[in-house]
Amino acid sequence: QHQILVFLSYQNIAEIAQLLDVAELISRLEAVMGEFSQRGAGLVQPVRSVVPLQKHGGFLGLMPAYLAHEDILCTKMVAFYQREQGSSLPTTQATVLLFDPVSGVVSAVMDGEVITARRTAAVSAISAKLLMPRHAEILCLLGSGHQAVSHYEVFTQAFTFKEVRVWSRSKERAEEFARAAGGPVTVCPSVKEAVEGADVIVTATNASEPLLFGKWVKSGAHVAAVGACRPDWRELDDDLMRDAVVYVDSREGAAAESGDVILSGAEVFAELGEMINGSMPAQRDKTTVFKSLGMGIQDAVSAKLVYDKWKSQQ
Ligand SMILES: NC(=O)C1=CN([C@@H]2O[C@H](COP(=O)(O)OP(=O)(O)OC[C@H]3O[C@@H](n4cnc5c(N)ncnc54)[C@H](O)[C@@H]3O)[C@@H](O)[C@H]2O)C=CC1
Ligand SMILES: O=C(O)C1=NCCCC1
After folding, report:
1. Are strands 186-187 and 92-99 parallel, antiparallel or unpaired?
2. Which residues does UniProt assign to the signal peptide (predicted)?
3. How far apart are CA 187 and CA 164, in angstroms?
4. pLDDT band at residue 85 under the 50/70/90 scheme
5. d(Cα 312, Cα 308) in Å, to the nearest integer?
6. CB count, 10 Å around CB of 6?
7. What is the ipTM of this complex?
8. Residue 311: how many CB atoms within 10 A of its CB?
9. Contact at 8 Å (CB) between 152 and 181?
10. Is the pTM of this model over 0.95?
């Protein structure tokens, strides 16, 4: 009898969070992204298929991946929306399916919220580890939603900052974020004031127009840009994109989906995985942007970690 592990939406989120250890996750993500950037035959991950839901201002993304070495077959389905300010509906909903690659039988159905939030922040933390200034003191988060929270958690676990700042278009939300954070967080009244002098800047918003301008960014700072995952959406302006050394998670993904890359005409210098596998250098002394879009292989290793841990506890 085949056992299917079912994590229904919003019911087992705390359990999934407990099973997804950050240090372990970072190490698995480094390995898989390094391998991805070698473009070997052992790793299959097409560029995300996206179905626009024009009527509802949303998109359904399908993110399959097969990792032959570890025999992980997985797909995530993620629905993401641009919502009116004040809407109570969620902006991102994800479900992850793990399969037995021998039979094709589904072995797990997991809520994708924690996996999406934590693996994205863990990937940004890998970019920061390689690209932020050596003695980085100030972390700045733009946005106060799910990704901002997970970036705060992962970054403050992985690094030590003297100051953490947050800006959000809703001051109340930023204040809520600061109250809920596990340490001191300065709420900033504008993006400009939030980012000035910051060593690491995370953009995690649903903006479709640039909100971070190169003229405000300290030379040598590192920007992890997580939002703007559509070809006509932006978080960063042309100056920043053109002046910074630009890294991406996947060159094909960025060419298809990143408005910041496509519309600025900026050159992509390297993939994160190329830095990890040593085929391209980390230009830590320059101003750097890591443009993240999210990859099926990241979900696959995350889901496998959760599944294996869960199974070992049965
Ligand atoms: N790169 C990746 O792998 C992933 C990227 N994302 C993207 O990250 C972004 C943030 O996701 P979540 O934190 O889950 O969303 P969320 O809805 O929880 O938070 C969004 C934040 O953006 C702010 N925001 C919305 N519209 C804005 C605007 N026009 N200008 C400035 N701020 C605005 C909201 O006030 C809120 O603070 C989204 O664009 C999402 O699609 C999400 C998952 C993975
Ligand atoms: O990788 C993901 O998961 C997502 N990427 C961009 C948009 C929402 C989800």
Report:
1. unpaired
2. none
3. 9
4. confident
5. 6
6. 12
7. 0.99
8. 12
9. yes
10. yes
